[in-house]
């Protein structure tokens, strides 16, 4: 199975991702391609990194993940490919890989990263504004088709890193931040529920709102209530039941969230 995923900020209007898929199939007709998302906000490397980070653990070993959120396209930024554990990645060297790389390092997984500097694995003509088509798609297809990672470029040890913000410990609990706002207006923090000793004895403060305790699900409160729950990746999430916490309370990315534990 030659499985590839694609994550971009291209949207679906102009056919950019369809063109990338055409390049992939031209090199590897047996490829299977999964779209993770093409709705990353334009040039938002951090949101792209989070989307990929949350999706990758659910794909089988050997999957090749192509990610193109590339505000530096056509500049001196490097195109890279990597093996992290049993998964492979093709992307610009702009920090997109950071959360996945940190997890691989923490878990002691095998790590190899190459600068994609072998044009024989690109399209014959490379335009400075569409490396997704001309470099990343063909490189990913060759990788999925069995070309060894080390054959595709020069090994490097200094990828660009842009770490996600981490919660900081306080005397009373944590200072966290809003890390992700989903399509429903639910607001996930960077605080893992595992860091909360008692879900029933915690107060969260965001903007001018106060939330008491973390409940099991949205359905444990009535429509319109502001709640804290565990999101699908195990982080503390702030939401409005059947509504949008982001819209109703004006919550934005990076907003501080004060988390206080009680005895």
CATH level-4 homologous superfamily of the largest domain: S-adenosyl-l-methionine hydroxide adenosyltransferase, N-terminal
Shape: elongated
Total domains: 2
Span between N and C termini? 53 Å
Name of the CATH first level of the largest domain? Alpha Beta
Order of helices and strands: EHEHEEEHEHEEEEEEEEHE
Structural class: alpha+beta
Instruction: Count every helix, treating DSSP H or I runs of 4 or more residues as helices.
Output: 5
CATH topology of the largest domain: Rossmann fold
Radius of gyration (Å): 20 Å
How would you describe what is shown here?
- The chain has 263 residues and is an alpha+beta fold.
- The chain has 2 domains: 2-155, S-adenosyl-l-methionine hydroxide adenosyltransferase, N-terminal (Rossmann fold); 168-261, Elongation Factor Tu (Ef-tu), domain 3.
- It is built from 5 helices and 15 strands.
- Helix 1 packs parallel to helix 4 (131-144).
- The termini are far apart.
Briefly say what this structure is.
The protein is α+β, with helices and mostly antiparallel strands and 263 residues long.
């Amino acid at each position: 199975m030659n499985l590839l995923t694609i994550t971009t900020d291209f949207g679906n209007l102009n056919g950019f991702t369809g063109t990338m898929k055409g390049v992939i199939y031209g090199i590897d007709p047996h490829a299977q391609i999964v779209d993770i998302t093409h709705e990353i906000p334009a040039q938002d490397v951090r949101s792209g990194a989070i989307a990929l980070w949350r999706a990758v653990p659910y794909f089988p070993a050997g999957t090749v993940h192509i990610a193109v959120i590339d505000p530096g396209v056509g500049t001196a930024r490097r195109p890279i490919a990597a093996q992290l554990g049993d998964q492979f990645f093709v992307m610009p060297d702009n920090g997109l890989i950071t959360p996945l790389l940190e997890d691989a390092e923490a878990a002691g997984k095998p790590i190899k990263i190459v600068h994609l500097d072998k044009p024989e694995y690109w399209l014959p003509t490379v335009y400075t504004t569409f490396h997704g088509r001309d470099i990343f798609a063909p490189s990913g297809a060759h990788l999925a088709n069995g070309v060894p990672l080390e054959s595709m470029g020069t090994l490097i040890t200094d990828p660009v890193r842009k770490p996600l913000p981490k919660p900081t410990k306080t005397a009373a609990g944590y200072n966290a931040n809003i890390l992700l706002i989903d399509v429903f207006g639910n607001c996930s923090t960077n605080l893992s529920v595992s860091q909360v000793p008692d879900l029933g004895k915690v107060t969260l403060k965001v903007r001018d709102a106060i939330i008491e305790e973390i409940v099991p699900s949205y359905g444990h409160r009535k429509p319109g209530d502001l709640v804290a729950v565990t999101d699908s990746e195990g982080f503390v999430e702030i939401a409005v039941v059947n509504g949008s916490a982001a819209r109703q309370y004006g919550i934005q990315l990076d907003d501080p969230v004060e988390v206080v534990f009680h005895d």
